[in-house]
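Z., the sequence and structure:
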Amino acid sequence: MKDIKPAILLFIMFTIICGGIYPALVTGVAYALFPNQAKGSLIIDKAGKELGSSLIGQPFSDPQYLWPRPSATAEFDYNPSASGGSNSGPTNPDYLKTVAERVKALRDSGITGPIPAELVQASASRLDPHLSPQAARLQVSRIAKARGIAEATVQKLVDGATEEPQLGILGVARVNVLAVNLGLDGVR
C-alpha cells in the first residue's frame, strides 16, 4: 500500500494537469490569439450564416463553379469525419477506373491539354480546400462561358483567392476554391 499510494496520487495529479488544466490553457490561448482559426476558420456571410470553412473542401460540380480536388469521401459529401487516405495505389484497377472517369469528365467539360494530377486524384486528407493556380486557370474558360461573363473577371477572382507560400518560402501558391466560388456568386 505504501508504494501504491504515491502512484495513485501521481496518476490523479497528472490526469488533472494533462487532461484538464493544460488543454484548457492551450484552448484559451488559441481563442485569445487566433480566434478565427480556433473556431474552424469559418466563412460567414453578412447575415451571420456559416457558408463553410476555408480549411475544408466542399463539393462543387456545377459548370458555373470552380471544381475542387476530388474527395475520396464523395459518398459522404466531403464529410470530415471520413478523412484519411484511400490507400489505393496506381496499380489498383478500381483506382485507375476512377481516375479515368475523372479525366473523361474534365475532357467533356472542355479542358484540353495536360490535366494536373490534383484534378483527378484525391488528396491524402480527402478534404483539400485548395487547387494550384494552374489547375484553377484550366477551369476559367468553362466558368466564364457557363456564367456568360468575361474570362478576365473569373481570372481576377482566382488571382484574388490565391494564397502565396507562408513567409514566402513555406509551401506553394494555392487557390482557395470556396473563396473563388463565393466571389463568383457575388458577380452579376
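The helical segments are 4-33, 35-38, 93-108, 133-147, 151-160, 177-186. The first helix runs from residue 4 to 33.

Let me know what you think.
H.
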